[in-house]
Amino acid sequence: MNTPKPTNLLPYNSYSLCAIAEQAYIPTNTSELEDALASTSSGASKVIVIGGGTNIILSKPYYDKRTCFIITTSMDRYIHWNGCICTASSSVPLQALIQESLDKKLKGLEKLAGIPGTVGGAIFMNAGAYGIDIHQHVLDVKTYDPTNKKYNIFSKEQLKSNYRSSIFQVNKEIIIEISFKLTPSNTPECEAETAREILSRRNRTLPHIFPNAGSVFKRPASGLRVGEIMEALGMKRFRIGGAMISDLHGGFIVNISQANGCDIINLAELMKKAAREKLNTHLELEQIII
Asked: What is the mean pLDDT for each group of 10 consecutive residues in the chain (290 residues)?
């Protein structure tokens, strides 16, 4: 059985924050995942499942045995196709799935090009861009319920899809496998070009040199973009410790010099306060604080 061990979480979060977890499991298959969850049921008071780690903020430099991490990046990766229906394991990188769909001349996922992380993480957050959310193309999602020790299937209609949210943020079931239904394309070169253009735009307008976890906040109800808000407030390049509001995109916080989780959280709180007090705009955190 996979055994827990002290683990540096730096490779498992896209902010590259150094944090030591006294107890972490790295299962390679569902059987080891079940064993790990069973082992933590009587010990740790909190269990954290990490996939690609592209949307999290580690708030502490050290997590004792009361918090157990289960890191799923080494779980089996597979993508199976049956015509326009695809089944992918949660640990598959989202970009690998998008590229395979383009290679098979199927459309639906091309506007998600460039979004980091895994397929499971994208389902958990209902990732989206350019008017598309990934849940729009889901048939069903297979999960593991650690409380009742059983597998469940959620249909598309049961996902409680909303902007950057899903039922899995509430029920805490672990996403194992996702089935999608895509559409055959009559103009596959157009979808491929769309994906290339989006990737190019992301490379030009989003920070890639410094570690980050993407958009810090959800888009405000006012419709204003967070990057535009920070630019209007003159807050680009504002810094707390090793964390800085990106000068390329004001909606991103980047780790420019050994930032810790508190640096990032405090900077995010300052951004929220400035938007509220100066523009009467409420900002809601998109990233998950652990």
From this structure: 84 98 95 92 81 96 95 96 98 98 98 96 95 96 96 97 93 96 96 97 93 96 92 97 97 98 98 96 96
Tell me, yes or no, whether 226 lies in a domain.
Answer: yes
Dihedral sign, Cα of residue 207, residue 199, residue 135, residue 139 = negative
CA–CA distance, 147 with 62 (Å, rounded to integer): 26
Q: How do beta strands 79-82 and 85-89 pair?
A: antiparallel
Which candidate, 230, 238, 243, 240, places its Cα nearest to that of 274? 230
Give me the CATH number covering residue 123: 3.30.465.10
Beta strands in the chain (DSSP E): 5-8, 20-25, 46-50, 56-57, 62-71, 79-82, 85-89, 106-107, 128-129, 132-133, 138-145, 150-155, 174-181, 183-184, 212-215, 239-240, 243-245, 252-255, 288-289
Please check whether residues 14 and 88 belong to one and the same domain.
no
My answer on whether 83 and 177 are in the same domain is yes
d(CA 143, CA 27): 16
Residues carrying an active site annotation: 164, 215, 286
What is the distance between the alpha carbons of residues 124 and 143, in angstroms, rounded to a whole number? 11
Contact 180, 191 (CB under 8 A): no
Which amino acid, residue 83? G
The runs of H, that is alpha helices, within 104-147 are: 119-125
CATH number of the domain at 264, please.
Answer: 3.90.78.10
Task: Say if pTM beats, i.e. exceeds, 0.90.
Answer: yes
Token digits for 282?
């409420």
CA dihedral 37, 39, 43, 47 (to 10 degrees): -20
28 Cβ contact list (under 8 Å, min separation 6): 2, 74, 75, 76
